[in-house]
Amino acid sequence: MGRFLSHATNRIDSKGRVSVPAAFRSVMAQSNIQDLYCFQDFVFPAISVGGSDLLERFERQIAAEDPFSPGANEMSLLIHGGGVFMKLDAEGRLMVTEFIRDFTGISDEVTFVGRADHFQLWQPKEFQAAQSRAREERRLAGKRSS
Amino acid sequence: MGRFLSHATNRIDSKGRVSVPAAFRSVMAQSNIQDLYCFQDFVFPAISVGGSDLLERFERQIAAEDPFSPGANEMSLLIHGGGVFMKLDAEGRLMVTEFIRDFTGISDEVTFVGRADHFQLWQPKEFQAAQSRAREERRLAGKRSS
DNA sequence: GCGTTTCCCATTGACGCCCATATGGTCCCA
DNA sequence: TGGGACCATATGGGCGTCAATGGGAAACGC
Question: Which residues contact A80 (CB under 8 A, 6 or more apart)?
Fold first, then answer.
């Protein structure tokens, strides 16, 4: 039922923390997500965040193919080597680590973006740009098919 | 059946709320729409608003293709990252959030535009302009085909 | 011991819930 | 047919609650 939807931008405080939007936290609560699995997104300069079921889904996908195939190897490199578990503090805040900053370019603000079964952390301007690129592409696709 | 028709412009109050036209609310009631799915339109600088079936239709479209494809990823970025569920207050008013203002340019007035199975929120002047552009294009198309 | 992280608590501004008022239209009845 | 009661809609605002944020101080790790 509850999905991660919408996007919102929050400030990082002097200690490097940022509040996860309340809407997202309530989705987490109702999905029984406590440990946050965070990994570097495959296509965008964003950190994807979800429950441990997210990791398990990836692992099942790896298991489904030949464990020695290049594909499975690469996949593991990304989801294991590029992933980490994190947790929120009592107020629902997240530490923005170097791991996150390096990959996303985030410095003082974080845009949280809902992706149904998980959400993402973006550098605000990067998100704007990626979204309008996607919209543009979709607009062209629409023109072609009409 | 009831469709969203016509357009009307209402004022945003000092707390950032705006009344949804009664005609639209009664269509919502008779279509059993309670949760409002609002998303940033793909082609216009407008917010499109409909029932949750609207989102589900998009999600089926995503599910139809490979969930790891770039196309599905981009689509999700738009309909999940660019969409929210909202609800009206007891008087049938809607909060005009930053999410809406940023994308539409709305500041103190909202034009509600019926689109049959959903309706849209526009910045009044943008709507005027888009409508007359559409009219013009239609006129040219008519000339060509006649 | 010093820098970093975790646990608390305080502040403030935004939002939800509630009730009040205005404005325009419709209907009824004299 | 004109006046007025009645009603629905749009709009305004009070107030309590909660979320986002800031910061002190203890706990932890190198």
Answer: none
Within 13 A of A55's CA, how many CA atoms are on the CB side?
20
Q: Are A38 and A86 in contact (CB under 8 A)?
A: yes
Verify if strand D has an atom below 7 Å from the CB of B30: no
Residues B100 and B107: their CA atoms lie apart, in Å, by 10
Q: Which residue has the tokens 């499975």?
A: A72
Asked if A135 has any chain B CB less than 8 Å from its own CB, the reply is yes
B73 — contact with chain A (CB < 8 Å)?
yes
What string of pLDDT tens digits covers the 146 residues of chain A?
A: 689 999 999 999 999 999 999 999 999 999 998 889 999 998 899 999 999 999 998 888 888 877 677 777 888 888 888 899 999 999 999 999 999 999 999 999 999 999 999 999 999 999 999 999 999 998 887 666 65
Inter-chain touch A138–B77, beta carbons under 8 Å: no
- Token duo for residue A72: 């499975």
pTM of the shown model = 0.91
Helix (H, G, I), strand (E, B) or coil at B83: strand
d(CA A49, CA A54): 9
Closest chain B residue to A43, measured at CA: B70
Alpha-carbon distance A105 to nearest alpha carbon in chain B (angstroms): 19
> β-pairing, A109-114 with B17-19?
unpaired
Q: In a 10 Å sphere around its CB, with 0-12 CB exposed, 13-18 middle and 19+ buried, how is residue B104 labelled?
A: buried
Residue A113: list chain B partners with CB under 8 A: 77, 80-81
Q: Judge whether A43 is closer than 8 Å to chain B, CB to CB.
A: yes
